[in-house]
């Protein structure tokens, strides 16, 4: 029986660049809780932003934030991983040297940003609706960093990801997160760490869990559960890490509720290899 469902946001629950959740989720999440199934949003996004997205149902769910560096339930921190400060400074210096590139430095409650353009500030503040603190230099960063991300306005091309991997892949994981973001994550940090934090806390086994994702920063989470779903638009490497695929997540959640948590009763589409 299913007891825990972990879901990525951008490209999974939030399709085609959407910044608001499908309305069905505000009905599904309380019903999952009533059925004894914990829903956890798992994203590279900050906690404040995720909490705002799920505002009507925050008490019914858990949050795996910053690609697993922060896990929160009932507004209490269950797990937190701190990013290396020297590495943070080196990434910021590299961003400052690279034309067009921007960065965000995540803390528990907000992003430190040093916008080169009004476009970037507007994207984070008014489109994605993140809590941000604008700074003039790295010396103004006083709170622990949880994750670094780089924004590439022209899109994350193969050449672009190779550039950042060549600079930093010997010191941390460098992975794509959507079409314009690159995440820099400590080797020991991933969404599966957050998932296991919840599994341990609630005594839930891997074969009682489902995960949904679409990007390379979801792979560890997909591999940490028995029932993993890649979205149909996922890259081949992501689908190869999943058991099944789905065009949308909400119908699968509804089917799980209708089957009373017995996923074996549901007809599923195997992931393409």
UniProtKB/TrEMBL annotation:
Recorded GO molecular functions are: hydrolase activity
The keyword Hydrolase is annotated on this UniProt entry: yes
What is one Pfam family matched by this protein? Hydrolase_3
Concerning SUPFAM superfamilies, the annotation shows:
HAD-like
Keyword match Nucleotidyltransferase: no
Keywords linked to the UniProt accession: Hydrolase
**InterPro entries of this UniProt entry?**
Cof, HAD-like_sf, HAD-SF_hydro_IIB, HAD_sf
Q: Which domain of life is it from?
A: Bacteria
| Gene3D superfamilies per the UniProt record, alphabetical | 3.30.1240.10, HAD superfamily/HAD-like
Q: What is this protein called?
A: HAD family hydrolase
Classification of source organism: Bacteria, Bacillati, Bacillota, Clostridia, Lachnospirales
């Amino acid at each position: 029986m299913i007891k825990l469902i972990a879901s990525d946001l951008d490209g999974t629950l939030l399709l085609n660049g959407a910044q608001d959740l499908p309305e069905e989720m505000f009905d599904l999440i309380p019903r999952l809780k009533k059925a004894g199934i914990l829903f956890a949003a798992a994203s590279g996004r900050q906690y404040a932003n995720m909490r705002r997205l799920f505002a009507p149902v925050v008490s019914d769910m858990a949050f795996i934030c910053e690609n697993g560096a922060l896990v929160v339930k009932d507004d209490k921190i269950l797990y937190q991983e701190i990013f290396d400060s020297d590495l943070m400074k080196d990434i910021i210096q590299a961003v400052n040297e690279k034309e067009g590139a921007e960065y965000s430095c995540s803390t528990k409650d907000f992003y430190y940003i040093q916008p080169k353009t009004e476009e970037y500030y507007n994207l984070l503040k008014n489109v994605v609706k993140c809590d941000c603190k604008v700074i003039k230099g790295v010396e103004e960063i006083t709170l622990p960093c949880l994750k670094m991300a780089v924004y590439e306005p022209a899109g994350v091309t193969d050449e672009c990801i190779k550039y950042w991997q060549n600079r930093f892949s010997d010191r941390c994981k460098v992975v794509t997160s959507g079409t314009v973001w690159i995440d820099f994550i400590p080797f020991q940090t991933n969404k599966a760490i957050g998932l296991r934090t919840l599994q341990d806390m609630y005594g839930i086994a891997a074969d009682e869990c489902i995960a949904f994702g679409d990007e390379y920063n979801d792979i560890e989470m997909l591999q940490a559960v028995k029932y993993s779903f890649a979205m149909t638009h996922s890259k081949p490497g992501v689908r190869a890490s999943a058991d099944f695929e789905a065009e949308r997540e909400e119908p699968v959640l509804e089917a799980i509720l209708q089957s009373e948590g017995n996923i074996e009763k549901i007809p599923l589409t195997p992931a393409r290899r």
